[in-house]
Amino acid sequence: MSDKKNEILHVGIDLGTSRSSISASNGQRHVIESYVGWPLDMVARRVLKKPVLIGREALENRSMLDLHRPLEEGLIKDGSEKDEAAVRELLRHLLSLVGVDPDSRNGRVRAVVGVPAEALRVNKQQVRKALQNAVDSLLIVSEPFAVAYGIEALLHTMIIDSGAGTTDFCVMNGRLPTEEDQRTLPQAGDFVDETLTRLVRGRYPEAKFSVHMVREWKEAGSFVGPPKNPVVVTAPVNGKPTQLDITQDMRQACESILPPMVESMLDLLSRVQPEYQEKVRNNIVLSGGTGLIRGLGPRLEQELQVVGGGKVRVVKDPIFVGSDGGLAIATDAPDSDWEKLSA
Amino acid sequence: MANVDRVKRQLLHDLVQQNVDLAEGRLPRTLRKRRRWTPATRIAAGILFAVILLGSSRLISSRLVSSQSNRQIPEPTAVQARAALNRAPGKVAAVAPASVPLPAAPLQPVDAAVFPLAVRKIVVDAGHGGGSTGTRTPEGMLEKELTLDIAERLRRLLARQSFEVVMTRESDHDVSLKERGALANRVGGDIFVSIHLNWIENRRSRGIETYYMGTTDDPYLNRLAASENRESGYSLTDMRRLLDRIYAGVRQEKSHKLAETVQSALFQSLGKVSPELQNRGVKTAPFIVLLTTDMPAILAEVSSMSNEGEARLLTKPLYRQYIAEALAKGIRSYAESVEETPEVAPAARKESR
User: Fold this and answer.
1) Optimal mutation site among B137, B144, B315, interface A, most CBs of chain A within 10 A
2) DSSP-assigned beta bridge partners for residue A245
3) pLDDT band at B110; cut points 50, 70, 90
4) Does A85 touch chain B (CB under 8 A)?
5) Superfamily designation of domain A4-147+320-339
6) What whole-number distance in Å separates Cα of residue B92 and Cα of residue B85?
7) Would you tell me which CATH number, out of the four given (2.60.120.10, 3.30.420.40, 3.90.1150.10, 3.10.180.10), belongs to the domain A189-255?
């Protein structure tokens, strides 16, 4: 019989603005929308039968909830106790999905949590605080570093991790990236959503739609460059479901993140030691949900022509690449190091 | 493969160390002052020291030989001594070389401008700390964290330019205003630079401003000073004594110059990154931390945490680095300006002919 008390579970968590994922050493992997909601009143509590709802369930019942998305631009909002509580709930829920009961643990849990490259120390402290007592040991890493570690792109590589809140750039040169090796842009998925919302509202002022609908449209039909198929969505106009052609708006919204993205990529490249610049140019890795925009990789390659060309590859599993990287770090770190890192 | 494993091991080691620092509330190593010398550096320093020692002993012996063979005072030295006297007629009581016959001058106060002392030691004061958190953005950024981060960056930049830097605090703990001033005086700082972040009632404003000691009629500035002076560690009697220092002429003049140089560097540099930045200029206000220091002292409000855009920029290490670079540039310009040999006034020049 195995001694459950001494069993160690390693987990990697990618705490994202829009989605958060977890990968565990017991083989389980889960992704949830980063939403937490509390029933608005007694009636809602009676209907929902839960004190707190998380992820898709929270999103679907949002009309009855005090809904929080506790991360903004990749950072934990700290405006109210509710947002701090939401982060705590989110992390605990992720742990529960892989079989960890944060309140009565049987074994030991070692967690690696990925945060945006430029998260302030105060934000990292908040993650520590949120996971206190929920895990035994905790390691906080920059998200693009977790991605690089997971795919073993540790030398002469540039990681562009574009999520909802931020686009993180990180040049890996065999050492822990410093601030000079990293950049974070606020232009990412949420920025595309806002732009698309504005454009569609301008084109179809009578149409009624929410930011959640816009997000779904984007996930289904985002692209840069010439369109392959028209993007047609359905939204109520004067109460009647109507088909709207948003092809041009979708293209414009998705391409709106290109100028700052290209500028940051070229700027970081120019700071790489000259003898390694070509290697890095040919080793650019695109990850994160926004990295899935169709045509984004080839378009970045096109922009690299001005500095002699390069190669951009999109990771195979952008949703889990961060948490898988975290898990790889967790399992590779020796026991002696984990002992220094009690949560 | 072995190479990848080695890289991974090193990365994990550094990562764990970074996290241990975070858990214990220490700054990341990249932002800390390096105190340890590697064996290679030690050897290099030893060789350098030996070379300097040898070089200076040769220089001394050659000077001795030349002074024995020719006892005349070299022309430039005598000219320089006279020029110094003529620059401030009736004001100098400098010690001249014994071999130069100079007219006796009455003992009078020395004009500081005659001796352009170099700025070598800079006291960098990271505003707030410990229980004194300073202002806070809705996103939870604390002024005390940001000022320390910028101060550490400034220290590294100044150290690279061969300045000696003394920090009033190096971690997140309380240091009273009294202690900050006392430390600056005790270590003999040449200038004192206190870093703060503004909170402006008009939240659309992205103002930066620099203060030096003085009084003000502006009720807003008085409120600001009262708020910053809280928990100063001074009694009422001390305060009266301190207020007498407000009009200490030369120091105030130099503080004014330092404030202008730093404010100009801040606005010019940061304006490129934050185009809507407002230059709120150089101002006087009775901040205790400026009052208690014996050297030229300024308090720079380097950004406005009350403005959403600035607060967002402050989350970026690169922006904090720009702020530190602008401060370093301003300090450097001031240091260079006081190190320039002052020109001989026209009247004095006539007399010296």
Assistant:
1) B315
2) A232
3) very low
4) no
5) ATPase, nucleotide binding domain (3.30.420.40)
6) 6
7) 3.30.420.40
What pLDDT, on a 0 to 100 scale, did the predictor assign at position B28?
56
Q: Measured between CB atoms, does B15 come within 8 Å of chain A?
A: yes
B240 neighbors B169 (Cβ within 8 angstroms): no
Domain with CATH 3.30.420.40 in chain A: 4-147+320-339, 153-187+256-314, 189-255
First vs last Cα of chain B: how many Å apart? 79
B8, B20, B28: residue with CB nearest A341 = B20
Q: Which residue of B has its CA nearest to A177?
A: B11
Q: Cβ contact (<8 Å) for A333 and B16?
A: yes
Question: What pLDDT score was predicted for residue B49?
Answer: 55
| B312 at interface of A, judged by CB pairs closer than 8 A | yes
Question: Which tokens belong to B308?
Answer: 């959403």
Distances (CA, A) of A16 to A113, A320, B107, B131: 10, 11, 73, 31
In this predicted structure, the answer to whether residue A60 has a pLDDT above a threshold of 60 is: yes
Q: Report the pLDDT averaged over residues B103-130.
A: 64
Least-confidence region, from A222-231, A331-340, B90-99, B328-337: B90-99
Strands A19-24, A8-14: pairing is: antiparallel
- Flag whether pLDDT at B105 surpasses 80: no
| CB-based contact, B88 to chain A, within 8 Å | no
DSSP line for A133-186: TT-SEEEEEEHHHHHHHHTT--EEEEEEEE-SS-EEEEEEESS---GGGEEEES
Nearest residue in A to B15, CA atom: A176
* Alpha-carbon gap, residue B111 to B132, rounded angstroms: 40
State how far the alpha carbon of A86 is from the alpha carbons of A126, B176, B243, B348, in Å.
Answer: 12, 36, 50, 74
pLDDT > 50? residue B353: no
**Beta carbons of B7 and A174 less than 8 Å apart:** yes
Interface touch B317/A118, C-beta < 8 Å:
yes
Q: Is the pLDDT of residue A271 over 80?
A: yes
- A257 and A188 in contact (C-beta within 8 Å)? yes
pLDDT recorded at residue A211: 86
- The reported pLDDT for the residue numbered A45 is 87
Considering only the beta carbons, identify the residue of A124, A179, A184 that sits closest to B22.
Answer: A124
Q: Which of B70-74, B305-309, B337-341 has the highest mean pLDDT?
A: B305-309
Of A78, A122, A139, the CB nearest to B15: A139
Chain A partners of B315 at a C-beta cutoff of 8 Å?
73, 75, 118, 120
Report pLDDT for B262: 96
* Cα gap B144→B162, rounded to integer Å: 27
B8 touches chain A (CB under 8 A): yes
Q: What is the band of B128 on the pLDDT scale with cuts at 50, 70, 90?
A: very high
Task: Determine which helix (DSSP H) or strand (DSSP E) holds A124, and give its type and residue range.
Answer: helix A121-131
Instruction: Indicate whether B246 pLDDT > 80.
Output: no
User: pTM of the predicted model, to two decimals?
Assistant: 0.55
Chain A neighbours among B 116-145 (CB < 8 Å)? 138-142, 145
Distance CA B325, CA B193 (A): 14
User: What's the maximum distance between 2 C-alpha atoms anywhere in chain B?
Assistant: 82
Distance CA A171, CA B165 (A): 32
* pLDDT of amino acid B111: 44
This complex has an ipTM of 0.78
What's the CATH superfamily of A153-187+256-314? ATPase, nucleotide binding domain (3.30.420.40)
